[in-house]
């Protein structure tokens, strides 16, 4: 796909924002991203980009390359896509059994990296009453505000998930992320970015609150970030085949996947779908465990209550 110049990109951004009655943001010397956001093409597959230097989105017009952790990349992407709805990884219908099990409809939900996904809208249709949607892209936030201006259950705010200081401590019952942490792990300074985001989520959740992380990262590359110093989670792992998987599965998706005491998959465990999504249901506990003592559990009776 030809890469537009920074001047043509700026013109496109101005046209889109003019239709939304906004002032244009600073110019972004960014390449236009692929038009079909498949996770594999984004460098957001099962292998972890923890080195911090990969996962760049490319550069156009002689400008520097932008990574997936930068607002300019996503602003450019949403301009090119025109705000067309797209749900990364999984739609709400597939995630509903997990969301309903661990976060009742009266929960105050934080949707991290909402993008143009339909998930929050679908959750409102399913009875959820308060969802705060945040995204690093001011372009997509204004698109979604305009689209859902008449749905009071949905709120939108432009924000970097690594710094959510505008919110007070322990102000949410549930936080959901499908793809944002993976995106940060493909960007510059990945380990620090991941640590900042997880710590912010932990700060914002009420005791007993749920962080639901949907990711391509297996426990060997995600549990260390979840169980960093300052966090204390009760973690239950599930595995969900990707949409469209045609193979047969031997276990129910609602069966927890056992992990070792050190927070990795047990020897010999192989998902039927090699491109499965890992769902970490992390319940906030009191105190701090630190990186050396991950808190790995199966669900208990209270956890499984509908």
TrEMBL record:
<dbReference type="GO" id="GO:0032259">
    <property type="term" value="P:methylation"/>
</dbReference>
<feature type="signal peptide">
    <location>
        <begin position="1"/>
        <end position="29"/>
    </location>
</feature>
<keyword id="KW-0808">Transferase</keyword>
<keyword id="KW-0732">Signal</keyword>
<comment type="similarity">
    <text>Belongs to the methyltransferase superfamily.</text>
</comment>
<dbReference type="GO" id="GO:0008757">
    <property type="term" value="F:S-adenosylmethionine-dependent methyltransferase activity"/>
</dbReference>
<dbReference type="Pfam" id="PF08241">
    <property type="entry name" value="Methyltransf_11"/>
</dbReference>
<feature type="compositionally biased region" description="Gly residues">
    <location>
        <begin position="48"/>
        <end position="62"/>
    </location>
</feature>
<feature type="domain" description="Methyltransferase type 11">
    <location>
        <begin position="110"/>
        <end position="212"/>
    </location>
</feature>
<dbReference type="InterPro" id="IPR051419">
    <property type="entry name" value="Lys/N-term_MeTrsfase_sf"/>
</dbReference>
<keyword id="KW-0489">Methyltransferase</keyword>
<feature type="region of interest" description="Disordered">
    <location>
        <begin position="25"/>
        <end position="62"/>
    </location>
</feature>
<protein>
    <recommendedName>
        <fullName>Methyltransferase type 11 domain-containing protein</fullName>
    </recommendedName>
</protein>
<dbReference type="InterPro" id="IPR029063">
    <property type="entry name" value="SAM-dependent_MTases_sf"/>
</dbReference>
<dbReference type="InterPro" id="IPR013216">
    <property type="entry name" value="Methyltransf_11"/>
</dbReference>
